[in-house]
Design goal:
7-stranded mixed sheet; WH_DNA-bd_sf; alpha/beta; transcription; LysR_subst-bd; LysR family transcriptional regulator
């Protein structure tokens, strides 16, 4: 008989594109992800992904299977989360959605001291907004507003998207190119450097490039790592460039381990919002979490 966890793992690999990304999303080991996938492939009798480097590309049969199982798995996960919450009588359980890097930089350090149970969910913003509206999540941290009349958004901070580099990057040489004020020369200098990217969202890089050069970047990063916090750690090795939110590397810039290379011709800023339902039974717990975010982000 097929193990339903195999399907959950299959869905995670499909959505993240890597075994590492799936392991992070499911909080299991990468060997465990590989075992689930190989077991499912043996069960269905065909290959579900083509392995290109570290990237997992779904085969045609893999796409068919995903389309068949994605919605039922989502419904089962919704039932699981709602049932867990409904059976909790004494200590409230709060479900919070945000990106992985935001969790690591802000809330992670406070989890052990929370006076209530906590479920952290990582996902894409449209998906989190939908889960908030359905009652699966109680609070989300997002740079994008939804349109549901049941959800209220509260701006609490902002992030600036900046170009950073390792301490060995020749910032003085780049400053000379900037003084020429020739967009093509600036772009060419940047493209000749080594670049870091993530296996998931590349939206920050795309936004920064379009704002400064009028088009999406026509190159691929040299090094693809699991998330933006991984990028910051890699940059401490001395070389390379990346486009990241400033709050992720503020301390590293202050310490000199990472350099602020360029803020761009115009500052690229995103407003960060708390999103929650207008009617909730967990207002006290939600306000507690909001307070922690304001403390870390310098607004409380």
């Amino acid at each position: 008989m097929v193990n339903l966890e195999w399907y959950r793992t299959f869905k995670a690999i499909y959505k993240t594109g890597t075994l590492t990304g799936a392991a992070d999303a499911l909080f299991i080991s990468q060997p465990g992800v590989s075992l689930h996938l190989s077991s499912l492939e043996a069960y269905v009798g065909y290959k579900l992904f083509d392995r290109t480097g570290r990237k997992m590309i779904p085969t045609e049969r893999g796409k068919v299977l995903f389309n068949a199982v994605a919605e039922p798995i989502n419904k089962l996960e919704d039932v699981e989360k709602n049932f867990q919450k409904s059976t909790e009588k004494h200590t409230p359980t709060i479900s919070v959605g945000m990106c992985f890097e935001t969790f690591q930089t802000t809330l992670e350090q406070y989890v052990s001291s929370l006076p209530f149970n906590l479920i952290i969910s990582f996902g894409e913003y449209p998906e989190m907004l939908d889960q908030l509206d359905k009652g699966i999540l109680d609070l989300i941290i997002t740079p994008k507003k939804g349109s549901s009349p049941n959800i209220e958004h509260e701006a609490f901070s902002s992030e600036q998207i900046i170009l950073v580099g390792g301490k060995e990057v020749d910032k003085a040489a780049f400053s000379k190119v900037l003084k020429i004020k020739d967009a093509e020369q600036i772009e060419e200098w940047l493209k000749n450097e080594k670049w870091y990217g993530t296996t998931g969202d590349m939206e920050h890089l795309f936004q920064f490039w379009v704002l400064n050069f009028g088009h999406k970047p026509n190159f691929r990063p040299n090094y693809i790592v699991p998330n933006m916090n991984s990028i910051i750690r890699c940059l401490k090795g001395g070389t390379g460039l990346a486009v990241v939110p400033d709050f992720l590397c503020r301390k590293d810039i202050e310490s000199g381990e990472v350099q602020l290379i360029w803020e761009g011709k115009k500052k690229l800023e995103n407003t960060l919002y708390f999103g929650c339902r207008k009617k909730t039974n967990y207002q006290t717990e939600i306000e507690h979490i909001k307070g922690l975010f304001r403390k870390v982000m310098g607004k409380g």
